[in-house]
Amino acid sequence: EAKELASEKGFFLYLAGGPVRDALLKRASRDLDLVLEGNWEVLLPELLAKTKGELLFKSQFLTYKLRLPQGFTIDLVTARRETYTGVASLPIVEPADHKADILRRDFTINALIYGLTLPFEEEVVDLVSGLKDLSEGKICPLHRDSFIEDPTRAFRGVRYKVRLSFNYAGDFYLALERAKEVEAFEKLSPPRLAQELKLFFSKEPLENLFKLIEDSDALNLFELSLLKKRALKSSDIDILGLAIKELKPKDREKFFLLFLIELEEKSLARLGFFPPEREKILKVYKIFTKEYLENLDILERVEAFEKLPSYVLLRLALEENLRHTIMEFWNTLRHIKPHLSGHDLKALGVEEGKKVGLILREIRRRKLKGEIKTLKEEKELVKA
Ligand code: CTP
């Protein structure tokens, strides 16, 4: 539909970036990026009507996200020129032709476009030797100041290297050096850094996770970004698996960020955790030593764990000395609760609200200790 509408209006339409790269590599691609040399606003009303699509959002970079009823989303991009005014700052954008749109991109393998309409219908447009680099497995930035303009590109480069088993080439290391010289990574804003790191987890298969982290580490990217990276252990994978299975998407993202770093003020702030959340995380991290937890009675321990957001609890479980206690809670203890409810207790003659609470806690304590199990035993305890 977009192709027909663009042709009618005399605009030029292209497929660009990831989908072109992946199609040439015969890999499945998740995204669809359509680039228009023209004005999407002119096409949008009819495009939405014809596809029964929904406009999800419009960004400051002249892009639109469209959700189709078939269940997938498409990025509608306006061919644009980007002008960078400062190190690691967001660019000023203005509509431009396909050449400028190619030249604003991160790596040569991502700078290939495929014509869907005239003047390059069914042709790959390759202005920067992207096809050659793709066949030789090279990750080359388009120019040596690429990472000064956008330091997240270095992390993107790591993702492509690991995902495609490619190698850094061309000006990659020079671009890194130049970005280092002007402290571009330090200047990257916390939300942009956090967003980029979340892509490690959301865009890449999990078995690549350790490789992504090792590779970023080898390039010193964490250190340059002012993060203190945590020493990873192979046993972490189990807890990561639990987080993926059991946490809500937003909590999972936070867990992943905490998974990467040492729990310390500086790194938490660097990844955009707000002061109250930082304080809370650091407070429990400080208090919850093995000795402290062992001195709590079993119910107090369960209640203390229950008060924590689950992404914090699972992060604490990555600490060797807390792992066993937290996993015992996570796998079994948290599910042990009284059969009887407050309602039942009132029916059994316990009038006072405060007493109901006390008795329910006592039932749970004894169940956690394994002293009682059945409903009958719970009722006997209430009578007593
Ligand atoms: N791009 C860029 N610099 C960035 C982010 C994106 O130049 N910091 C360009 C690249 O040309 C990229 C395109 O925008 O191909 C689309 O970005 P994105 O959807 O993030 O990446 P994909 O290429 O689709 O790759 P992935 O498979 O990692 O999603």
Would you give an account of this structure?
- Residues 13-139 form the Poly A polymerase head domain.
- Belongs to the tRNA nucleotidyltransferase/poly(A) polymerase family.
- One of its GO terms (biological process) is tRNA processing.
- Its cofactor is Mg(2+).
- Keywords: Magnesium, Metal-binding, Nucleotide-binding, Nucleotidyltransferase, RNA-binding, Transferase, tRNA processing, tRNA-binding.
- With 384 residues, the protein is α+β, with helices and mostly antiparallel strands.
- Helix content is 54%, strand content 11%.
- The chain has 23 helices and 11 strands.
- The chain has helices at residues 2-9, 18-24, 40-51, 98-103, 130-136, 146-149, 152-164, 172-181, 184-187, 190-203, 209-218, 221-224, 236-246, 249-260, 265-270, 275-287, 290-295, 298-306, 310-316, 320-331, 342-347, 353-369, 375-383; strands at 12-16, 33-37, 54-58, 63-67, 73-78, 80-83, 92-95, 113-115, 124-125, 138-139, 167-168.
- Strands 3-4-5-2-1-8-9 form a 7-stranded mixed sheet.
- Helix 7 crosses helix 11 and helix 13 runs antiparallel to helix 14 (249-260).
- It is elongated and about 90 Å long.
- It starts with a helix and ends with a helix.
- Cytidine-5'-triphosphate is lined by residues 17-18, 31, 33, 105-106, 110, 150, 152-153, 156, 203.
